[in-house]
Design goal:
The protein is an alpha/beta fold. Helix content is 36%, strand content 15%. The protein has one domain: Response regulator (Rossmann fold, 3-Layer(aba) Sandwich), CATH 3.40.50.2300.
Length: 166
Amino acid sequence: MPDDAATNTQPGGGHSSFKKTRLGSAPGFVQSLHTHLKESGTLQRILLVEDDVSLANLEADMLNSRGYAVSIATSGEMAIMALHQDIPDLVLLDLDLSGATTGWDVFKVLRRYSSAPVLLTSAESAIRSSIRLQGEPRSTLDHLPKPYPLQALLKRIERMLAITPR
């Protein structure tokens, strides 16, 4: 079993806990990152829940390069532990997680604490009907079928964060 430090390591050497980074503390900060700042001046935080490590790293690298603070959980159990520590601004959640805890289990735990937007990903095409049964608007719960282009993922995340009250 891997140790906690190794399982919480992010691409680029970061740690899985969200860091509150203020714009003024990073000299030469890229101007395009301003769109991903909350009113408090901290980066918007995304919890990426994906059991395919290579896909999780690819998506995290892309989102980090766009100015988001990304934390990766590679299992449902890790995602629930992360949610107990801190609620992100958005959860990118794979419904097809391997292991005992499914993506729907993670979603139910999150909804006990927060109405943060959730972008569900799944190769399952019949997921839309399950989403409608949750009774949530697309601004807080949406689905992106796998496989998807990274640009589609980015645009969906930007849209959901833009219309979600902070």
